[in-house]
Amino acid sequence: MRSNKSKTIGLAAAVLLLLISVLCSILFGLHLYGIKDLWLAYSSFDGSNDHLILTTARVPRALIAALVGASLAVAGAVMQVLTRNPIASPSVFGVNAGAVLFIVIGLTTFGASLTMNGMVWLAFAGAITTSMIVYVLGLQGGGFEPIKLTLAGACIAAFATSITSGIILIDKQSLESALFWMIGSVEGRNLEHLLMVLPYMAAGLLLAALLAGSLNIMALGDDGAKSLGQRLTFVRLLSAAAIVLLAGSSVSAAGPIAFIGLIVPHLCKYLIGNDYRWLLPYCAVIGAILLVTADLGARFILDGKEVPVGVATAIIGVPFLIHAARRRRHV
């Protein structure tokens, strides 16, 4: 799609598909419901099991999946420009590993008394902490270089993962809860968890949107960006802040769901090109569609059981990662 008109039509169609996907996610699962059931659950709530499932489980689950998918996809697109690495994703900043480490520490320290709300805040704190450490390390030794940021992220992620494994081996009681959270899932979340992280997601999406023009310039490379008057350090700091807000809030709400931030930017670039003024909105909508549909599909992989959505995204993402790694580098 090359013209603005075709891109606008495509984005509108994607939004419509997202609404349909969210509706299907609410209605379909181990228990099937109709649109009338959903309407009555909100217009004439009677406290029945069906109404409780719809209002406290299905609707929050679909909304969280959509917002987490959008946030991870936009974070991945910004990350690929910041690191000039076509297979970069939010995990490069150590976001996933840091969030998991803080969760495991919380489970070991507080045990069964640790609530889901507490886990959300611990995960967010871990994501922010590790991201800041990685960024500071990436600035050491002569200024910013994408390769240093990538290596720092890989080192910190490996270190956090090692500490996590050691804690789990020492305190096996935290193993089951930690493993379920580490896989990534939107099951068992409610609107309260979404509202806790929604301001950070909104701030990250807004910041990324404001940076769209600057990201177009940064994609030209440092020399080209400087010749056009781009303040590279300032833009990089803001880009890193957007990534931390988006990825940190997503991980804290749903766990470390992989590959959304890798797959979606490539799909969107194939559809509309590299103009980030269009790319970021497309990433948000298509990322939401991908995670919502992956969560819906994960309910039917095993008969009578629901598979965490992190497993479904991994099944999709691993072949795509191999394909992307074999292609020529592009941003």
SSE layout and pairings?
Elements: H1 4-27, H2 35-43, H3 49-83, H4 95-110, H5 116-138, H6 146-170, H7 175-183, H8 191-210, H9 212-218, H10 222-227, H11 232-254, H12 260-272, H13 276-298, H14 309-326
Helix pairs in contact: 1-3, 1-13, 2-3, 3-8, 3-11, 3-12, 3-13, 4-5, 4-6, 4-7, 5-6, 5-11, 8-11, 12-13, 12-14, 13-14
Description of the structure:
By secondary structure, the protein is an all-alpha fold. It contains 14 helices and no strands. It has helices at residues 4-27, 35-43, 49-83, 95-110, 116-138, 146-170, 175-183, 191-210, 212-218, 222-227, 232-254, 260-272, 276-298, 309-326. The two termini are 18 Å apart.
| Oligomer kind | single chain
Counting DSSP E segments of at least 2 residues, the number of strands comes to 0
Poorly predicted tracts of residues: none
Total helix count? 14
Counting helices, strands and paired strands, the structural category is: mainly alpha
Described by the principal axes of the CA atoms, the overall outline is globular
- Percentage of residues in helical conformation: over 70%
Question: Alpha-carbon distance between the termini?
Answer: 18 Å
Give a short account of the largest sheet: none
Strand content: under 5%
SSE string, helix = H, strand = E? HHHHHHHHHHHHHH
